[in-house]
Amino acid sequence: MIFRHVTRFKVSALLIITLSVIFSLFWGQFITPGRAYSGNYALSFNGTDELVWIGPGGSVIGTLGSTWKSLKTISVWVRPLGVPRAPAFGGSPGDLDPIVTTETKFFGITRGLLQVSPGVYQDGIYVWNFDGLFQYVRIPYTGGEWIHVTLIHSGGRLYGYKNGVLAGSVASGDTNTPRTDLSWSIGGSTFGGFTPKFQGQIDEVAIFGAALSQETIRDWMYREYTSDHPNWGSLGAYYKMSDGSGTSLSDNSGGGTDFPGTFFGTPDWVHSGAFAGPRNALDFDGSDDTVWVPDAASLDLASGLTFEAWAKP
Questions:
Q1: Are 16 and 85 members of one domain?
Q2: Which domain holds residue 95?
């Protein structure tokens, strides 16, 4: 009986320590992986002459519906590489290197050095919308690391999320354009003389004609979208980079419409490090935060035990 009691005590104590370590990773903070975990594919762009064009059928009204000027969500996993660049001409976030944008610079997600005052440039990933002026939210990032970015435009505001956490928001009216035939591009643009290209890797591009909640973003950012997604009916186009080879990109939205992408140049298929399971964590203050696991007969592990954990000290 003494051995049994001591064993329970030791196992309970070890579980407290171990769960403290595990929960410190898997609740409340998000991890940005810098290497491949999922084993699926992403597209790698060289920053020079490569992009994927979604058109001509894949217009904004085709993917987002009739309310697209005021209601939309774009989400993407992206791994920026290379040196961030200032635009060759122009000074708006729409002039930066495209990650996912409309071809004619009316809204999207870009990366680069934005001039915020004369002679002062600020690096970032920018979610933006043109409502007569370019309204934007800057999202900081670390080169070479995967980051999940979400643009939401709803209720007269533009929201930018980084790894499921709100990075900022700004008032933004309806997208200001009379056109409804705007096409999409991933990794670059060929609009007129506007030729910036993104350098890095892109995965899991999703376009919704709805405003996703923060809870939904966090619940789904580390897994592929399925019909169980609460906004599945508003999913206009979805590119989970499932092809793995070839020179076209399949639309995996599974709806009544299909908007495949066409390669310009030769983006490379690579193994993706975009996600690896639901990564919530508990954050412990080092003072009085603990998680207690009650004693139980199931903790009598007489033949041995193994503990594994992720930790961020």
A1: no
A2: 41-271
Q: Which of these, 77, 78, 109, lies nearest to 225 by C-alpha position? A: 77
What kind and span of H or E run contains 24? helix 2-26
Q: Which tens digits make up the pLDDT trace of 41-56? A: 999 999 999 999 987 6
Cis link prior to 56 (omega < 30° from 0)? yes
Q: What length is written for the chain?
A: 313
Backbone torsions φ then ψ of 211, nearest 5 degrees: -100, 115
Residue 276 lies in a domain: no
- 244-250: average pLDDT: 94
For residue 20, the surrounding DSSP H or E stretch is helix 2-26
Task: Render 223-289 in DSSP notation, one character per residue.
Answer: S---TTSTTGGGEEEEE-----SSSEE-----SS----EEEES-PEEEE--S--S--------SSS-
The predicted pLDDT at position 233 comes to: 93
Give me the chain's average pLDDT, please: 83
145 with 21, same domain: the answer is no
pLDDT-derived band at 188 (thresholds 50, 70, 90) equals very high
Which DSSP string do the residues of 53-92 spell out, in sequence order? EEEEEEEHHHHH-TTTTT-EEEEEEEEE-S-----SS--S
Are 107 and 128 in contact, with CB atoms under 8 Å apart? Answer: yes
Specify whether 18 is located in the same domain as 116: no
Query: Among 152, 98, 106, which Cα is nearest to 125's?
Result: 98
Question: Hey, what amino acid is at 200?
Answer: G
